[in-house]
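User: Please fill in residues for this 493-position structure.
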């Protein structure tokens, strides 16, 4: 696909995703897998549940444009509630089930939800800003709703990403965002209607939601999701038993799977990876063990994935791959001008990209920060002569924890009241394995620090290592030297 046709109008994201229910009603859209059983959803059953839940949502008194906060776990309820909201013009706000009560309470005033959908055991805001519905089965016990069609540029959903200032930011996306994902079908996946794509992530992870569910459904393919609690060691058996043709996971999952011999998977064509940089040793070990390649993608919440290798155009070794056909990206210098071929600069996305967000939610408006006509990503890259992009680093200090971008400032702000001077950095403890470490100058014990982290930070944000230091390394101007700090901690391990 060299370019993307204009998004149809009127348009609805959920109607587009579930359109195959009219053509393939009995085909399996979703199978939730465990080593002993599977829960199967046909396209007809899936759309029926979505539209009935959509009607149930409206029966709660909410109206199109209202925001629905999703506090849901790793179950099919999550994508169903997400699509049900969008189907009738409501705005779902999916949030990580790992967020603690203080974390979700800080986000709630900005979200200003009119309704919360929750599963037991997942933290809710305090105080509660609106009614809470936890019986989702009863919510779906209504007649089917009709899709609300409209302008493809209108707000469809909000999703949170970690901001460089340490404050999570709400990213606003239009209904057209799903239309732009068509560029990934060939530019990354090589996805076809007869594919069976197994995604190793949880239902309530946005990587799973897009790559593992919405994209396969929009083509009439079958999505396979491991049941909650499935160990990575069981994934090869599930891939083989259920004839998976594609496998998607974060690099850490591939690493865990490769710790044991992998059975032959004759139907598997290739793997997909995103969330964090895939190391060459993992790529090579996977190829040796399975005879298949892994195609990696670079993306962000603000535009999903837009740089990738693919079956038709594999990424050259040690590169990110290519801008997907139909994307317009640039590499800018500090003045906002495009650099010459081979020069390192900041990767940017043109404002005309159909997948680019409407903006960050700020005071109930959308702020799209631009440098000229470009949205700057913060990733430092250079272009090779063949057009592939070589990754260098982040221009900011963002950390990566198992595919989740985490701001060090957010971690530091959580600990500052009890430890004083502190800094969060990523430390490589062995080849291709990085963890979040908190360096501090207090006398608190590691157990005390871990207990504090559990109370105020989601699991993926919690440091795995604590390093007490007499003083943190700083330059003459007092600025923290994070590179030197990470090296000092690494040398003590």
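Assistant: Residues filled in for all 493 positions:
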């Amino acid at each position: 696909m060299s370019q993307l046709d204009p998004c149809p109008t009127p348009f609805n994201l959920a109607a587009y995703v579930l359109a195959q229910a009219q053509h393939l009603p009995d085909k399996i859209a979703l199978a939730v897998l465990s080593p002993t059983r599977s829960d199967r959803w046909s396209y007809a059953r899936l759309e029926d549940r979505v539209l009935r839940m959509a009607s149930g949502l409206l029966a709660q008194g909410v109206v199109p444009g209202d925001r629905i906060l999703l506090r849901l776990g790793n179950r099919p309820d999550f994508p169903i509630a997400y699509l049900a909201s969008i189907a009738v013009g409501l705005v779902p706000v999916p949030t990580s089930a790992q967020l603690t009560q203080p974390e979700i309470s800080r986000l709630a005033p900005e979200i200003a939800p009119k309704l919360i959908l929750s599963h037991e055991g997942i933290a809710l805001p305090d105080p509660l800003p609106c009614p809470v519905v936890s019986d989702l089965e009863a919510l779906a016990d209504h007649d089917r709703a009709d899709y609300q069609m409209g302008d493809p540029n209108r707000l469809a959903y909000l999703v949170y990403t970690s901001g460089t200032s340490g404050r999570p930011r709400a990213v606003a996306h239009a209904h057209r965002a799903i239309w732009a994902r068509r560029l990934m079908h060939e530019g990354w996946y090589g996805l076809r209607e007869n594919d069976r794509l197994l995604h190793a992530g949880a239902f309530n992870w946005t990587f799973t939601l897009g790559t593992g569910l919405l994209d396969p459904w929009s083509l009439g393919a079958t999505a396979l999701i491991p049941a909650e609690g499935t160990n990575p060691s069981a994934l090869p058996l599930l891939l083989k038993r259920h004839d998976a043709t594609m496998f998607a996971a974060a690099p850490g999952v591939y690493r865990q799977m490769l710790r044991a011999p992998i059975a032959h998977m004759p139907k598997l064509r290739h793997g997909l990876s995103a969330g964090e940089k895939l190391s060459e040793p993992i790529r090579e070990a996977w190829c040796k063990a399975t005879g298949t390649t892994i195609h990696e993608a670079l993306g962000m919440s603000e535009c999903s994935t837009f740089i990738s290798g693919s079956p038709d155009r594999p990424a050259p070794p040690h590169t990110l791959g290519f801008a997907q056909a139909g994307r317009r990206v640039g590499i800018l210098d500090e003045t906002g001008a495009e650099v010459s071929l081979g020069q390192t600069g900041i990767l940017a996305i043109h404002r005309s990209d159909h997948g680019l967000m409407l903006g960050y939610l700020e005071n109930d408006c959308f702020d799209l920060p631009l440098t000229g006509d470009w949205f700057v990503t913060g990733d430092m890259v250079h272009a090779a002569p063949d057009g592939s992009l070589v990754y260098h680093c982040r221009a900011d200090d963002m950390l990566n924890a198992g595919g989740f971008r985490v701001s060090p400032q957010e971690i530091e702000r959580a600990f500052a009241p009890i430890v004083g001077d502190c800094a969060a950095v990523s430390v490589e403890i062995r080849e291709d394995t990085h963890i979040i470490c908190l360096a501090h100058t207090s006398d608190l014990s590691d157990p005390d620090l871990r207990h504090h982290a559990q109370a105020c930070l989601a699991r993926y944000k919690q440091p795995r290592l604590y390093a007490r230091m007499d003083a943190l390394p700083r330059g003459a101007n007092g600025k923290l030297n994070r590179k030197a700090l990470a090296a000092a901690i690494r040398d003590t391990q």
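For context: The mean pLDDT is 92.
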